[in-house]
């Protein structure tokens, strides 16, 4: 278990605490924990690459920790009407689509090492910025932030659709190639 893997695991274990903080309206602490989780994602990636601590476990654990964090935060913010329900459904559906595609590849004995697409990295960044912004609006109420959050909602929706489409096209190509063999 490398240090980056331990950091990813800590991020994963912080999710229930962060969700609970949001549910009990401890917005400033929730923002702090969420930002710390985001920072930990950057730190574990930096350590893994800079010091050669990349591992097979890390290639799976890091994106799982990211997805569990973001999906959980989006669901709780959506359930509390702080994010549009359609956006929450879009974000969760994209992740289910990707997970289902990976599962089908696994069933067909097709090796697949997770390597996020560039559009997926942009999408993850947008999701993080949106979630942090929504939490920040409640931690430090600002009336002007509403328009900013609406722009982030639209940008997150667009990047979610773009990323999901790109993964779907990649999966479709892989499956067609498999059928032709």
List the helices and strands and how they pair.
Elements: H1 3-23, H2 27-50, H3 56-79, H4 85-107, H5 118-139, H6 145-180
What does this molecule look like?
- The chain has 181 residues and is mainly alpha-helical.
- It contains six helices and no strands.
- It is globular and about 60 Å long.
- The model has no long low-confidence stretch (mean pLDDT 93).
Summarize the structure.
By secondary structure, this protein is mainly alpha-helical.
Radius of gyration (CA) equals 17 Å
Structural classification: mainly alpha
- Unreliable stretches: none
In one word, what is the shape? globular
How many strands in all?
0
The percentage helix is over 70%
Distance between the termini: 38 Å
Characterize the biggest β-sheet: none
SSE topology string: HHHHHH
Strand fraction: under 5%
Mean pLDDT: 93
Compute the number of helices: 6
Q: Write down the oligomeric state.
A: single chain
List keywords for this structure.
single chain, 181 residues, mainly alpha, 6 helices, 0% strand
